[in-house]
Amino acid sequence: MRERGTRERSVVESILDEGLLCHVGVLDGDTPVVSPMAYANAGEALYLHGAPANRVLALLGSGMPACVTVTLLDGLVLARSAFHHSMNFRSVMLFGIGASVEDPAEKMAASTALLEHLARGRSGDARAPTPAELRATLVVRFPIDEGSAKVRTGGPKDEPEDLALSMWAGVIPIRLVAEAGVPEPGLPAGTATPPYAVEYPDRCAGDSFGAPERPGLLP
Amino acid sequence: MRERGTRERSVVESILDEGLLCHVGVLDGDTPVVSPMAYANAGEALYLHGAPANRVLALLGSGMPACVTVTLLDGLVLARSAFHHSMNFRSVMLFGIGASVEDPAEKMAASTALLEHLARGRSGDARAPTPAELRATLVVRFPIDEGSAKVRTGGPKDEPEDLALSMWAGVIPIRLVAEAGVPEPGLPAGTATPPYAVEYPDRCAGDSFGAPERPGLLP
C-alpha cells in the first residue's frame, strides 16, 4: 500500500505543523462551501481568525458540523500506464464543531499562535493587538479530536506486464519553498531584518517548526 | 484593496490551469467533507477521477450540490501589527453539481486531460487506459459555471501610526517548485527521459501551461 490512512497523533501533528493553509468546509444553506484560511496548530485545537464579516468563518464559529483539511503536495507520480498516475501527498482531515472565542486572553493567545505558526518568533517582533483590534477579530477554535491523516509516498504502482515498456516512469518531487523576504518600502533606517525574512525555515525539515513550543496557548 | 474578488474568466482559468490539487466539498449525511483531489481543467468543466470506492468522489458524481476550491499560496505578508498579518494567494471557488461520466470516449478524453494537466505531453508518453481500466475508473465532470476567484497581492496594509515603528515588514514569497524527476528503479536501458522530468515547467510562468490546448476534450 503506497497510500495509507492513519490516526497516529504524531503524523497528524507534523502535517498540521508544516501546513500554512487549511481548507474549511461548512454548509451555507443547502450548499457546501470550501474556503482557504490561515490557521495555527495550538495542540488541542486549531485557531482560525478573520473579519467578523467572513461568512465561512462565522459559520464555522456558529456551532455547525464542519471539516477542516490541510494538504501538503509532495510529488507527481508518473506511471507507465495512464491509469496509475497519482500524486504523493500528506493530508489531515478534521471533523468537529468550531466555537467562537470570546475571552480576550484566549484571543490574544490565538493571535500569538497564528503569528508563530506563520513564522517562528514573529509574535515577539510584531506590534501586539490592541483591545479594539481583538474585538474586531473573529477567532474560532476548532478541536483536533476527530479525524485522520492520509499519506501517499513512493513511486508508481504499475501492472507487472507494463514494467518492460520503455517509457519513463518515476516521481517529480514538489516542494513549497520560500524566497528571501521583500521589505516594505520606507522601513525606518536601521530596521533589523529577522532571520525568517532572510532565510525562511524549511518547514518540512522541521528544524524550526517541527517541534513547536506550545506553552499554555490554550487556557 | 489588496484582496479582491472577481468573476473574470481569464483570472479563473489561469488559477485553474496553474493548480495541481483542488479541495472538493460535499455533504456526507449531515457532515461536510473536504477532500484533496487531482483535477484537469477542460475549459467548460473540471474532470476529477478516482476509484469507484472513493466516497467523496462518488458523492460528487451523485448529483448533489458541491464546492470545488483551488488555492495557490503566493506569500506570507508580515505587517508591523499582528492584526494585519495576512497571506498572498489566488483561489477559485466553484459551485455546482457534478455528474458521473459514463461515455467511454469522454472518459478517455478526461484521462488525457488529467495527464496533460499533470505534465504537458504526458498523455502521449503513457500507456493509454484499457476498456477495463476505464470501467474501473470513476470520472466526474464538474461545471465551471458558477463561482469566483479571490486574489490578494502586495504588501501589508498597516495603520498609518504604525509605519514609523522600527520592525521589519514585508512579504516572504512562497512558490511551489518541482525538482528533477526521480526515475523508477529498473527502467529498461535506453529509456528516454522526457523534458518535464528533467526540468518541470514553471506553471506560474505559463510558458508551457498557461495557454493549454483543449481541443475537443468535451464531446
What does this protein structure show overall?
The structure is a homodimer of 219-residue chains. Chain A is α+β, with helices and mostly antiparallel strands. Chain A has a domain of 153 residues: Pnp Oxidase, Chain A, CATH 2.30.110.10. Helix content of chain A is 20%, strand content 37%. Chain A is built from 6 helices and 12 strands. In chain A, strands 1, 2, 3, 6, 7, 10 and 11 form a 7-stranded antiparallel sheet that branches. Chain A is globular. The N and C termini of chain A lie far apart (41 Å). The C terminus of chain A is likely disordered. At the A-B interface, strand 2, strand 3, strand 6, strand 7 and helix 3 of A face strand 2, strand 3, strand 6, strand 7 and helix 3 of B. Strand 11 of chain A pairs antiparallel with strand 11 of chain B.
